[in-house]
Amino acid sequence: MEAQVKGAVFSSLDDAQRSFASHHDACSTLAKVCMTDAVVFWKYTIQALNRVLVIYSRDPPVERLVEFFSKFAVYLSSKESNTEGKNGSNHRDACTTFMRYLIHHTSASSKAVRFRTTQILSRILVNLPEDAEISEAVWEPLLAKMTSRSRDRLPRVRSAAVPGICRLQSCVESDDIRRTIATLLESDSSPLVRKAVLDNLSPEEWNIELILSRTSDTSEDVRRACYKLVAEKIDLQSLTISQRVTLLRRGRLDRSSHVRKEFLQSLVYRGWLEGSCGGDFYRLCELLDPETYAEDIVPILCEVEERFAKPIVAIDLNHLTKEAAVLLLAFAKRSADNERLSQVFPSLKSYAECLKYYKQDDFILSCLIQVFNKLDLSDEAGRRDLISTLREDFLEDSQIPDRHYPGLVRALVSSMGSQSSAAGLVAELLIADGSDWSSEQAAFRALKIVEGLLLASTPQNDPEVFFSSLIDNVVLKGLVNSSVDIRSVAIRCLSIYCLMDKTEKTASTNVLLFLQVLDNDVLPLQVIALEAIVDILLRSPPS
């Protein structure tokens, strides 16, 4: 009889080390043998197990046996196999015996034995069903030993303990287990351990911030695992808007191309767009608050613009939402498909009318202004309409927010096709009617318009021909204004003007003025003046 039991045990284990496919049949066979003669069965099973425990290398046959032993223990604990043997033993008792043997050896001096016993126990815990019962004689020492192995000096042993620790945490509310998991995730020196925690942790309210913090981990593998976990286990709507945008910002700016790819494919595509939003880009934008976080959202949408090309064409300009506006902006920034954009704006006249229509909506207006760069400017009649709109409805309107002026002036210069004509129009606009120049608001507005004009213009051999009246009547007056905000814009305008002069005559004339600001003015203006001096020196270093 002993020879038959020995042969059955070794034959089943031999099959198990060759293929995962044979594990179920081997479990069934060994369970029957165990009920035949438990003493002899455990004699040879433990003998075989001991040979596995002393192997530290990750050889495939050994890994298959480790997986088999964990499956076998789970099989023994299952209700279906809980039958009684001839000697009064049952499968559940056999499972307890097996686990107690492993627990006893988790503190062995051999690193291989500690690793393998911890590995098998963790896999048993992970594979146990939710309603599995573990005897108290096993539970307490199991909890203590797994916690102890999570502090082992070897990273491989600590990482082997992680799945079991995470499963124990899901079974019982314990502050000690939570602290152990938090320490492993935040402070463990090994990326192998931190990644193992992310691979096995179930997100809950107490650990969400811990998980999200790993998006700035030093290890590329840990960051990838973090984005995968968030995509698969954390619903978009369970995060605050701030947390969502932080994830977007960190994923987009990650230094590793592999992490950025994981972020886009797993989190943005499958997790949020397809999983939480059902493929609806408008819903995704709505959940990310585009009005507040457009600078973070638009670059992400630019990465996926080919996926929302069709919805762009269906945009109704008469009912443009903030979500549609930000999608339109992302499409215009990234796509080379101007034909689709021309379906949204059939002519420059329709674009001009759209600008006027959404003049009071600051965010939508900002998006529309930025879309201008991709429009077809070949329509001469449309350009005239647009120039008229830009001047009469925007540049002459003192209620337009200052941040829009650079984009509006850039559109004006491009539409007119001539820097000199644009400079003349702006000079006429600002200098001819100076009735309210005593107002700081009017002076600031005029300087922002001049700044936009200078930024939209290209370097010239003699920029004084185009801009002298604006510099003399707007910028130089701003330099002596009592308002720090006005002086700061004036200094920026003058520095841009100096850099526009290819002959460098303007720079040499005004560099002393920047030095004077550096000596006498307030700190914010000193910084701007210093930047101007550095730019001038970089362009034309002293001989």
From TrEMBL:
Keyword DNA repair: no
Domain Nuclear condensin complex subunit 3 C-terminal: start-end pairs: 445-538
Assigned keywords, A-Z: Cell cycle, Cell division, Chromosome, DNA condensation, Mitosis
InterPro entries per the UniProt record, alphabetical: ARM-like, ARM-type_fold, CND3, Cnd3_C
Main subcellular location: nucleus
Annotated SUPFAM superfamilies: ARM repeat (SSF48371)
Subcellular location: Chromosome
BP GO terms, sorted: cell division; mitotic chromosome condensation
Gene3D superfamilies: Leucine-rich Repeat Variant
Domain of life from the UniProt record: Eukaryota
GO cellular component: condensed chromosome; condensin complex
Family listed: Belongs to the CND3 (condensin subunit 3) family.
PANTHER family registered for this protein in UniProt: CONDENSIN COMPLEX SUBUNIT 3, CONDENSIN COMPLEX SUBUNIT 3-RELATED
Protein name according to UniProt: Nuclear condensin complex subunit 3 C-terminal domain-containing protein
Organism encoding this protein: Rhodosorus marinus
